[in-house]
Amino acid sequence: MTAARSTADQLAGHADPTAGPVGGSAAERVLAGLDPEQRAAAEAVRGPVCILAGAGTGKTRAITHRIAYAVAGGAVPADAVLAVTFTARAASELRTRLRGLGAGGVQARTFHAAALRQLSYFAPQILGGPMPQVADYPIRWVSQAANRLRLRTDKAELRDLAGEIDWAKSSLVAPTEYPAAAARASRGISLTAERVAEVYAGYEEAKRRNNEIDFSDLLLIMSVALEEIPDVARAIRTRYRYFVIDEYQDVSPIQQRLLDAWLGGRDDVCVVGDVNQTIYSFAGARPSYLLDFAERYPQATVVRLERDYRSTPQIVDLANRLISGAGGGPAAHLRLIGQRPDGPRPSFAEHDDEVAEAESVAAAAKRLIAAGTPASEIAVLFRINAQSEVYEQALTEAGIPYVLRGGEKFFDRAEVRHAMVLLRGAARADDGSVSLPESVAEVLSSLAWNAEHPPPGGAARERWESLAALVNLAEQFAVEIPAARLEEFNADLEQRAASQHAPTVQGVTLASLHSAKGLEWDAVFLVGLTDQTLPIQHASTPEQLAEERRLFYVGITRARQRLMLSWALARHRGQVRRRRPSRFLDGLRPGTSEQATGRAGGSGKRAKTAVPAEDVATFGRLRAWRKKQAEAQSVPAYVVFSDATLVAIADRAPATQAELAQVPGVGPTKLQRYAEVVLAVLAGEDPDPVILD
Fold first, then answer.
1. Rounded to whole angstroms, what are the CA distances from 633 to 272, 615, 627, 688?
2. pTM value?
């Protein structure tokens, strides 16, 4: 069993004494250890099937056993199955599990990887020539398009533009359609919708001039080819006849179009998802495809997985109470049922400032490690990546190793690349006389790695942990394949590197809530839980606030045994403590009621009386200045600053340009333009608008 396998899957195998083998055949043995609902999902071997799978309910176990059962029972050949998920790591995990279940011939890929493989093969028929280059850095074409329009954009604004273009393409919205679609979806960045549409059109033209396509183009080109070129459609539909789509709540219109094209009117499809974990609507995800599946396929088998094998009942109860405020009714949302023994209640802590909060988290993590919890089983999760710095500092000062998820990729690290080169060389002389783990450890000793003497901290400790992870991986590989030698292990490493399926590294994980999805730890610290951070300050519509609530839910359900929630009333020491705990905590933390959250419809709006009077007055002065500034520039008011940014400025009351730069929504360009006048407004003055060149 690999380290990546979840607690839900481990415990689910022993959850129900009646769910043992039903016979002696290979197919029946695949069903051993599944709970009644997982078994029902696995036995529904032909589509359409919809599996509504809550967090920690063993959904990966259910779908891999379903595929393996169908293959072992002869319902479908392994090479006729296409299992699709959303990350290369998840696809690699599916392949590993299916191989262990005897279904190694199944194709498990992301939407983009599957489309790339198909387009590469059929390019002459589809494009009339060779496969074009897939843009490895498409933001450069965004920059080129903006420059041609004489727009002054910084890196943050370029990222925003690239995100808008990606959303539009994922939503099947053409440049000419963008302004109307953006208005319907309440999209908003510093540029007008018309300007974004011009950049979008320029981006498409830049790609064409340079004979490049992007990842969305892969999906669209293959969709059109399957719809319009009979020979291509016939070949692909003959090859793939059995589809499984994981994380179906995150499917976008362009992905759904490709799935429909693959199916070609057939219905042998199994979708798996959880509407409670829809957190990518901003990128084009449409949970309606999951919610409406039974309407599109009235004959569909629908299975609900609600037994939570991951988290303690105390954590499950907190998650259920939070998500009950999202609206949608019981048909839309799963209510988890805890299966683990009782554990400690989630804790709530308020701190004067972020430094004190980080120091408290580091001290608690140190106690957990001293009590026997591995550092790799502890995570600190936050809403935005910028929040990580203070925790990096606190953990470093406490002598605790950490891993920043979203930082340098494991297989890109210099020590890992060097180790893989040495392992490839050593494979030539490997005669199998020593075990695989011993062989790997011996090779790594030439890099001065010693299992018994890890360095105390810093860069040297990070390097040691990377090499230790390779040894741990070799130990796991040897358990799965006892006779494995270096050559086979190296091939597995190469496959992992290609899909960025990194092993576990011993260190406390620092990660954003979005990047934590799909992962789990024994102990989780959810930090920085203040209004304007969670929910994020630019979330204003009921739909956006509901998504922020779901993001919080995802964070809670990452914890197995211990969950600690905290917030700070000020950013820096000595600042006025103006911040308020997240409105989502109302009704969850002791001494608060649910009524304050305004939970009807999932809007999460806080009662007006919760806003200090001085903040209201400051916000009013900022809005009055913004109105004059917008009129002077002849632009909509939100182009200067959004309401959410003004609220954040009023809430934090920065006194210097450096403090103003820390406010979400105040990028370098806006800081340069408006810092002086904004600080004057905060000081009670009435400055004239800035005259821009």
1. 49, 27, 10, 12
2. 0.71
